[in-house]
Design goal:
Length: 132
């Protein structure tokens, strides 16, 4: 029999391997919250332009003063700002999550492979691996 308690060691290795994933989730969740707070004013401004351009009372004034192109342009600029900032955060978050997940899965796979090799070499039994 092996001298190591594989089930305890396996649990510790698994916990340590997934910690970067958890920390990255917390970090980017906080960044998303702060970005949402920052972009809420732009979202309200964007909603105002949409409301202004789609109500009948405002539409008459927009046509009278010829300011439709200005409002549409401003609406497009605000949308691009919001979209670009959220898209940049989403891309960074996804990239870091994929890298951390691959790292964690790689460590867990190596650990499982070591357990299987040890069991095949008959230095421990499957029951010894799974029972505390």
């Amino acid at each position: 029999m092996a001298d190591l308690k594989w089930n305890s060691l396996y649990g510790v290795i698994t916990l340590v391997a997934v910690m970067p994933v958890a920390l990255i989730q917390i970090y980017f969740g906080n960044r998303q919250f702060l970005l949402t707070q920052h972009l809420s004013a732009l979202g309200r401004e964007n909603y105002y332009y949409v409301l202004l351009m789609t109500t009948a009372a405002s539409l008459r004034e927009i046509i009278s003063f010829g300011s439709g192109r200005y409002f549409i342009g401003r609406h497009r600029d605000v949308f691009r700002q919001v979209f670009n900032q959220t898209q940049n955060l989403r891309i960074r978050s996804t990239t870091w999550n994929v890298v951390a997940s691959l790292f964690a899965n790689g460590i867990i796979m190596v650990d499982q492979f070591a357990i299987v090799v040890t069991a095949v070499a008959q230095r421990m039994t499957v029951g010894y691996i799974t029972m505390p």
